[in-house]
Structures are given as structure tokens and as C-alpha cells.
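Customer escalation, tier 2.

The customer says the design service returned an amino acid string that "doesn't look like it belongs to this structure." They asked us to rerun it and document both sides in this ticket. The original C-alpha cells are below, unchanged.
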């Protein structure tokens, strides 16, 4: 298998312009759903990712690896690292585009081991949009925003209606997500999305 990357995005795209009401650079994004494994504060064994809006089309996330995240002794499990990137990339899509979307495809490159106790500084960016398809990518820097890149990821998110979550998931949990979403917007002094459940 070659390390040479395929062209990205893989199809012609339009620029993914952040929504006019997207949170401004410097905004701490908080938890999007309390039970989310990636960011939720009610997910005890979760990753507890924290994210901040950056300049341009970027979201910065931080994830500290604990002993609960091991695969090999003393090292982060690759699947959990992929989860951290799914969350960071999803946060960029959801918060900057303000459209509900799910991961269609997620590709990860593991370049350096990520030890327990280290913090990954993940910079996720919007790369382009083609209809319902939103292309995003991210680099995870070890222990500092300008640290060596340990993991990179690229993903396709597909925009869905909110009924995706009530049809396929748990309608009560969707209500909880909607409440959390409203609370986050109120705390940041922002108005609600155009798309309602
Ligand atoms: C997730 C919470 C969002 C809630 C929003 C509310 C507030 C949020 C605010 C902020 C959010 C903050 C953080 C979010 C953090 C984390 C997010 C985690 C996200 C996940 O963890 S989410 C779970 C894993 N995810 C799934 O559970 C998806 C299962 N799946 C499906 O539900 C369907 O599969 C679906 C819907 C993807 C598509 O189905 P569909 O029928 O609607 O549409 P269709 O198949 O036509 O695809 C349309 C076009 O995408 C192309 N396409 C699709 N898949 C492709 C692939 N794999 N490779 C290449 N191209 C692909 C097609 O080729 C076509 O392209 P074209 O239009 O050019 O023909």
C-alpha cells in the first residue's frame, strides 16, 4: 500500500463558506450532546474533546490521552484516535456550516505513536462542498499547536435532515441534543439554526 495520497477533495467542489451566523473565532464550542463519546460530559469513559473556533474555516480541538484510551501498552488506541478526529471534523462541519451532517467516510494516517498523557492539538478545516457532500481534513499535533503531526485525517460528511436522527436513532435523545444545542446558542448569544427537528 502506498503512502501517496489521492487528490483531495476527490471531486470538484465549491468553497465551503462558513454560515454567516457561525460562531466567531475564539469561541469555545462546549459540548454538542452530553452523552457524546467524543465530547460529552456525561460520557465518563469518553474522550472529552474541547473545541474552539479558529480563524477562517478552522476549528481547533484538544484531546488528552488517558490510560482508558490505550491499545498497545502506554499508547493510544488507533480507533480512539480516529474517533477523536471524527469528533473534531464533525465539530468543524456542524458549527461552521450549521448544517446537520453525518460521517460518510473517514480516513486516518497514523504517523507517530501517541503516548498516554500526551495531548493532541487537532486543527480541522473545511476543504469544500459538493451538493450534500462536505469535505474536511485535520492534522493532530503532539503536545503543542505547532508540535509534530502524529495523526492526519480526511473525511466526507453528508448533510442530512434532523429526521435522520429521530428515524434511525432515539427521538428522546434527539430532544436532549436539541436542548443542549439551544443552551449552547443562548450562552454564546446566538440565534437558532434555520433547520429545526
Ligand atoms: C452527529 C450529530 C449532528 C447533530 C447536529 C446538531 C447540532 C450539532 C452542532 C455541532 C456538531 C458538533 C459535533 C459533531 C461531532 C461529531 C460528529 C460525529 C458524526 C458521526 O459519527 S455520524 C455516525 C457515523 N455515520 C453514520 O452513521 C452514517 C451512516 N450512513 C448513512 O446514514 C448514509 O449512508 C448517508 C446519510 C451517509 C448517505 O445516505 P443518503 O441515502 O442520505 O445519501 P446517498 O447515499 O445518496 O449519498 C449522498 C452522496 O454522498 C455520497 N456518499 C455517501 N457515502 C459515501 C461514502 N462512504 N464514500 C463516498 N461517497 C459517499 C454518495 O455517493 C452521494 O453522492 P452524489 O450525490 O454525488 O451521488
Amino acid at each position: 500500500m502506498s503512502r501517496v495520497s489521492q487528490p483531495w477533495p476527490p471531486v470538484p467542489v465549491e468553497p465551503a463558506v462558513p454560515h454567516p451566523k457561525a460562531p466567531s473565532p475564539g469561541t469555545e464550542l462546549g459540548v454538542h450532546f452530553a452523552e457524546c463519546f467524543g465530547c460529552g460530559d456525561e460520557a465518563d469513559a469518553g474522550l472529552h474533546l474541547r473545541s474552539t473556533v479558529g480563524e477562517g474555516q478552522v476549528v481547533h480541538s484538544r484531546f488528552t490521552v488517558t490510560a482508558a484510551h490505550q491499545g498497545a501498552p502506554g499508547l493510544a488506541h488507533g480507533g480512539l484516535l480516529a474517533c477523536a478526529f471524527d469528533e473534531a471534523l464533525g465539530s468543524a462541519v456542524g458549527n461552521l456550516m450549521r448544517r446537520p451532517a453525518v460521517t460518510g467516510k473517514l480516513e486516518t494516517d497514523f504517523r507517530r505513536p501517541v503516548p498516554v498523557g500526551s495531548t493532541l492539538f487537532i486543527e480541522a478545516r473545511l476543504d469544500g462542498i459538493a451538493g450534500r457532500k462536505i469535505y474536511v481534513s485535520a492534522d493532530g499535533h503532539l503536545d503543542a499547536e505547532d508540535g509534530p503531526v502524529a495523526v492526519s485525517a480526511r473525511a466526507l460528511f453528508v448533510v442530512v435532515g434532523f429526521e435522520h436522527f429521530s428515524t434511525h436513532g432515539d427521538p428522546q435523545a434527539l430532544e436532549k441534543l436539541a436542548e443542549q444545542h439551544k443552551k449552547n446558542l443562548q450562552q454564546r448569544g446566538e440565534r437558532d439554526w434555520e433547520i429545526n427537528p
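Tier 2 assessment: The sequence is consistent with the input. The first helix runs from residue 78 to 97. The mean pLDDT is 93. Sent an explanation to the customer and offered a walkthrough call.
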